[in-house]
Amino acid sequence: MRLTPAGIAAIRAYSTEKGNRVSAEQKANSIIDAFPGNSLVAKTGYFAGATGLTALLIAKEIYVVNEETLLLVAFGSILAVLYKAIKEPFNNWADSHIQTVQDILNAARGEHKSAVLTQIEAKSKLKDI
Known about the structure:
This protein is an all-alpha fold. 78% of the residues lie in helices and 0% in strands.
């Protein structure tokens, strides 16, 4: 089955809801805001510096781009997406597990404290004999 350009445009138009779309300007600002710094010049300076350093390393043949580089970039991208997708559910699970363990330990501490107090009471009655 071959899709025509009109078919692709129709599929793309219905792939996301119009209310959920983020404008290109907002998306660009969110990407720029992710960089450290206070001004636009400082924020884009990191990106420009990294790009210039990469260009210098490639031009001087200090670093040669090959298939391993592409694999590294692809693997890093997959890890970044997985981290973004898994971070929140894992944090929720870890917090609930920590809370469960804390509840068990607090209950055991309370039971131990009451047992010790019972033993102290029993021993204090024996001292009068």
